[in-house]
What does this fold into?
Amino acid sequence: MQAFHVNKVTINHAGREIFRDLNWAVNEGDHIGLIGPNGAGKSSLLKAIYGALPLEAGVITFAKGVRVGYLSQHAEAEPGVTVWEAANSLPPGLAKVEEELAAIEAWLADPAVYGDEKRLERALTEQERVLEKWERLGGPQFGGKIRELLTLFGFTPDQYDLPTDVLSGGQKKLLALARLGAEAPEVLLLDEPDNHLDLEAKARLEKFIRDYSGAVIIVSHDRYLLDEVVTEIAELENGKLTLYKGNYSQYVLQRELERLRQQQLYVAQQKRIRQIEEAIHRFEMAARQDDIRAARQARHRRRMLERMEENGEIIERVREQKQIELRLDGWRGSTKALEIKNLAMAFGDDLLFDDLNLLVRHGERVGLIGPNGAGKSVLFRLVLGELEPFAGEIKIGPSVRIGHYAQEHQTLEAWMRRTPVEFIQDVWPCSEGEAVNVLLRFLFTYRQTRQPIGELSGGERSRLQLAALMLTNPNLLLLDEPTNNLDILSAEALETALESFEGAALIISHDRYFLDRVVDRVVELRDGQLTGYEGGYTEYLEYRARSPRLEAVSGRGIRERSSK
It folds into this structure.
């Protein structure tokens, strides 16, 4: 049964037409991944379905009784309240019913009503109707459902009284999702719900989405998540929506086969069109010699081409998808690119980690994982010399040049009022024209090269950082969540560049698809200790599944775990 239908919808935003005459039908229970390049209009489409963005044309119709829940990309918890108060605040529908019940109770308490049999009967009948509505909307189970979802998302009862202001960005998003889940709308719209979540939180999110009985449309750049939870991919690109059955990996295969088939058909049709045009030319030359039959043949073939155009039978050339032109060359440096010995770090009386040991050799790609707050970014700051360790030492190879990608774009903080052109010229002394050419290769428009960096989106700032990495030509990369704000095509460009990179890389990432494709081994920072695993994320996960209770690591180096 159909949940809603998007019919010939056109949306304009800031004077730009995002898409025109878009059609889409979504059925109850569908789990769909909505993908496409940054700026394609994915978030705008979700907002339009939710009713938060006006339509320029068209209509979106819902089946009777269908409610829509929406988690925005930048979901925030209500400030100044506790976790429990934020989660347990009633949704508008239930709050309205509760107000109706309170009004009826006040009515029943009125002696004039209580003493009038007919008025009392009407009041009791109305109360029964509203109570049925309260039960139908899940009022009696709402508190229990909230507790169940808070537990699923990793909140413990002793955290219920915490103020929401102390929560991390990921926790705030999960808190908002718990409240939405308790409402149980028939359609759930999730805009990048996995951002800022660590690996454990992503696993909890996956379970929630897989088990959700209603329709779910999820915008995400996490290909691993899309493989786990969706059964259909909707690709929004160049103002068109194309549907593919299956998860993300199946979509990639289908799309590549379709593009190959389309290109073959295009080449064959273009050859046929050239033959027809050549025939028209020959007949028109003959017609100039008063050959009536040749003139008729020329008109017939020209009409053939016109009918093909009128009927939409002209096959388009396969458009090459725009991708950043990223090259990370690197160069041969020290055999030991980075060595950490007996490292300890504390903030006041709080010991973050102790006796850490790690060796990253030339040519290695090492994935650094662990729960949020474990100290991964602090470890990077220690390596960069931004913090002094409590104990231990960090050795950088003598012929090593570090390239740093900051998760929150801290490398750009001093440049927010300057332009990307000025930033590139500072990183890589060059002419203004050369700087613009670099930025165009990283998919910036000419206008964006001249506007303040502070006005750029998260994805645009990420691409700017990658451009700077390429230009500085490091041979040791410290990458902190490099795919967080990148669309899938840009993430794939980074993966390709890292495959041919001649140097070492230590990469903090919660992008499991990325880890599987890029890293040779994984090291996990948990409870102040490092544990190493050979292989990518899948091998790490397999080992964890076989050994759920890992023994403590002594600190005399990393305990290497082989999944084989």
The chain has four domains: 2-77+167-246, 95-134, 258-310, 336-401+473-561. Residues 549-564 have pLDDT under 50 and may be disordered.
